[in-house]
Amino acid sequence: MANQPGLITLTTDFGYKDPFVGIMKGVILKLNPMATIVDITHGISPHNIKEAAFTIGMSHSFFSAKTIHVVIVDPGVGSNRRPIIVRTDHHYFIGPDNGVFSLIYGSKSETLGVTHITAEHYFLSQIGQTFHGRDIFAPVAAWLTKGVETAKFGDMITDYVTLPFPSVSMPNKTTIEGEVIYVDRFGNAITNIKAEELNAIYSINPEAKLKIVTKGKQTELKNYYSEVTDKGLYSLISSAGNLELFVYRGNASALFEIKVGDIVGVMLAPPS
Amino acid sequence: MANQPGLITLTTDFGYKDPFVGIMKGVILKLNPMATIVDITHGISPHNIKEAAFTIGMSHSFFSAKTIHVVIVDPGVGSNRRPIIVRTDHHYFIGPDNGVFSLIYGSKSETLGVTHITAEHYFLSQIGQTFHGRDIFAPVAAWLTKGVETAKFGDMITDYVTLPFPSVSMPNKTTIEGEVIYVDRFGNAITNIKAEELNAIYSINPEAKLKIVTKGKQTELKNYYSEVTDKGLYSLISSAGNLELFVYRGNASALFEIKVGDIVGVMLAPPS
Amino acid sequence: MANQPGLITLTTDFGYKDPFVGIMKGVILKLNPMATIVDITHGISPHNIKEAAFTIGMSHSFFSAKTIHVVIVDPGVGSNRRPIIVRTDHHYFIGPDNGVFSLIYGSKSETLGVTHITAEHYFLSQIGQTFHGRDIFAPVAAWLTKGVETAKFGDMITDYVTLPFPSVSMPNKTTIEGEVIYVDRFGNAITNIKAEELNAIYSINPEAKLKIVTKGKQTELKNYYSEVTDKGLYSLISSAGNLELFVYRGNASALFEIKVGDIVGVMLAPPS
Questions:
Q1: Whose CB among A44, B142, C33, C189 lies 3.0–4.6 Å from B31's, allowing a Cys bridge?
Q2: pLDDT digit string, tens, across residues B124-175
Q3: Which of C64, C226, C227 minimises the CB distance to A30?
Q4: Chain A: residue nearest C16 by CA?
Q5: Residue A31 covered by a domain
Q6: Do C33 and B36 make contact, defined as CB atoms within 8 angstroms?
Q7: Helices (H), A93-239
Q8: pTM of the model
Q9: Which one has a higher pLDDT value, A6 or C271?
Q10: Average per-residue pLDDT in chain C?
Q11: Is residue C147 domain-shared with residue C245, that is, in the same domain?
């Protein structure tokens, strides 16, 4: 197989202290020196599969077609959990079959194929039971960039693992109940309530106002951060299209003790 | 516009936990797969525009001509603060017009042009109001590497924002008063006093000694860190040519409670 | 010298806050825009030469032949400690002569040559005494990728610095005494006891069991992390082939107060 350009992204919980990520890059570039490697993040909280699922879910679509996304949060490494390749309309995803691709399975791809990686001749020659990123996932990603077809790596499976993600509920036509699903480095708290859902209840009475409530506190919906100047809790639509709670030039999570799992309610309040 | 090699650097306060930087790289490489991207740092303190200005000020000159430096510390994102391209003799700079390029405006470039970016056809198709790094700055940087001229992105402006930076004062011919402007990861405290300024007062009486004082403590000027072996506070000329306070194999900032804004005085003391 | 592709890795204690690493990359790419640069880590504890030695020792072999590994943990920068190039069968290493390459000298390379870098025309034009990463190591690495031979950079030396690393002792044929030499971001504690050493005492009586003891606690040897589900202390063979102490989905170092230097004993216990 000839070397050719190809884009590989890495998303892991390996952090920035140890050489694990660098070692994976060495393995990839040894097999294909023409590959381009982009770090999405290595700062996933240790063993937090859902955080990784959310991270790759909000990131992958900004990359070019045929990008190979390697995602490794893998507490079950070495056990019989399967290494897999997920293929969608536009991208490839490589990682452990532990639910890390749950939001990819749920995306709008028309085609979806999941391959159980078993073809050991594409692995590093001596594989261990603690670092499949180095021994399996990195070399398989490199071979994919070299043009090896997914069918060569193993058989298709349909019983891949999907983790439940918190869904939004609507107790009535003008109320949405969701929750915080991610807190970013600025302390902004991103919820699972989408802009379209806000629009749907808002369209019932465009004269009315949206009341957004979390932890007994009511917040106003703004368009951008610096629309306010005080240190109160406000909300806006995040860059990924979700309802987000923020404090202007402050850390909403720290100041208002908001964390993943906190309930957020949205109500349509008639004009007063 | 043809793809061609081009170097883009990134300096942000996005940190290393979230996928924001990775997403920007995806946007750039989708538009120009031949671009090379270098991270200067993503560890700027959240919303600290001056720290970013200082960081790009001390870094840019080490990159090759025509490098495109994207700098994003942008608490005003989504407001009417302008996205701009700054062009100097050697480089391009892209970011918000909030003073982040203050030290570039003050540098010795003979040519200087600032363009207000308004040409929306170079933006991502759906732009939001919270992540212009993804929606405006990354694509504009990519289009620049593909050879689009700065004039195509919008009109020139001259009323760009410049932030005041602390300047050194000289109460008399043998005294300099400056301050700490940056503390690095080792705890070294870098001041705004330049080596040339030290040389100027020193040349008045080369027999005399320089007394460097901060927080009531006097330090001696050394040539390099390991010239001393005890844990006292010393000073030397930093890699950027500034007076710097240090502790050998220790953290000067932590051990002597030195922080940004602390006053540092230099006096010429006659030989005793 | 013509530009040509070449792989350079970086391992430093520069951290992720300051622009030092970005500046080094600017220097390299200015000299050779075709170089590929991989970060192994910049999270080495400040001034910890042994940690850097261990990190590059466990990483380098995964990179392709002729890779140039730049390692900078350099408290003696500016003093008369020498800048060196180490050449082995497969790789080049560049950094200060302070013991950071101790484990490279001890590796199985059949050829080994150490060059004292003195040829100043390969340095940045104005070199300082605090940042040889920028002024000496980065440009020398770039020139190496362009095909300059090591002999051009200076003379060979044989009195390079080697640091003592803790070695394993065997008080008798069925007992090994070693120690913890590295704790990774997950809190896993890696020891200096190699899998081969475990196999050697195990082969004496394959019916017997290995007892692994640290801090008065006995642990069982497992094959992979998720073989257990409780939060006890267990051990396995790490990805680098060393005995490693771990807690499944937990931080062994924090939970059991295990740190670098702690003694770990292995005994062959007859079947009960």
A1: B142
A2: 988 889 999 999 999 999 999 999 999 999 999 999 999 999 999 999 999 9
A3: C64
A4: A16
A5: yes
A6: yes
A7: 102-105, 132, 138-145, 195-202
A8: 0.96
A9: A6
A10: 95
A11: no
Domain boundary among B156, B189, B218: B156
- Bridging pattern class, strands C189-194 and C175-183: antiparallel
Helical residues (DSSP H) of A60-131, grouped into ranges: 102-105
Residues C21 and C120 in one domain: yes
Kindly report the length of chain A.
272
From the list A28, A30, A36, the residue with the least C-alpha distance to A6 is A36
Alpha-carbon span B106 to B103, nearest angstrom: 5
User: Cβ contact (<8 Å) for A185 and B18?
Assistant: yes
Amino acid at B245: L
In a domain, B68, yes or no: yes
ipTM of the prediction: 0.96
Q: Specify the pairing of strand C169-172 against strand A189-194.
A: unpaired
Residue C155 has pLDDT above 70, yes or no: yes
Measure in Å the smallest separation between the Cα of A133 and chain C Cα atoms.
10
How many angstroms separate the CA of residue B145 from the nearest CA in chain A?
Answer: 17
Q: How confident is the model at residue C272 (pLDDT cuts 50, 70, 90)?
A: low
List the beta bridge partners of residue C81: none
Kindly give the parts of chain B with pLDDT less than 70: 272
Residue of C18, C38, C74 to mutate, interface with B, max B Cβ within 10 Å = C18
Using the predicted structure, report yes or no on whether residue A80 has a pLDDT greater than 70: yes
Phi, psi of A181 (to 5 degrees): -115, -10
The whole-angstrom separation of Cα A207 and Cα A198 is 14
DSSP E strand boundaries for chain C: 6-12, 35-41, 68-72, 83-88, 92-96, 112-116, 156-157, 169-172, 175-183, 189-194, 209-214, 217-219, 234-237, 242-246, 263-269
Q: How many domains does chain B have?
A: 2
Find the residue in C nearest to A130 (Cα).
C239
Between CA A235 and CA A213 the distance in angstroms is 10
Q: What is the spatial distance between Cα A208 and Cα B136, in angstroms, rounded to a whole number?
A: 33
Same domain, C66 and C191: no
Q: Which of C104, C184, C131 is nearest to C14 (CA)?
A: C131
Place of tokens 């007992």: C175
Range of the domain at C38: 7-156
For residue A56, give the CATH number of its domain: 3.40.50.10790
Which helix (H) or strand (E) segment holds residue B54: the answer is helix B49-59
Selected residues 147-166 of chain A with any CB under 8 Å from a CB in chain C: none
Pick from C121, C156, C191: which residue ends a domain?
Answer: C156
Query: Per residue in A232-265, pLDDT tens?
Result: 999 999 999 999 999 999 999 999 999 999 999 9
Which residues, listed in sequence order, are joined to residue C92 by a DSSP beta bridge?
C68, C87
Q: Check whether residue C71 and residue C202 sit in a common domain.
A: no
Domain check: are B84 and B173 in the same one? no
- Considering the domain architecture, whether residues B36 and B105 belong to the same structural domain is answered as yes
The pLDDT score that the predictor gives to residue B109 is 77
Residues ≥6 apart with Cβ < 8 Å to C4: C32, C34, C145, C146, C147
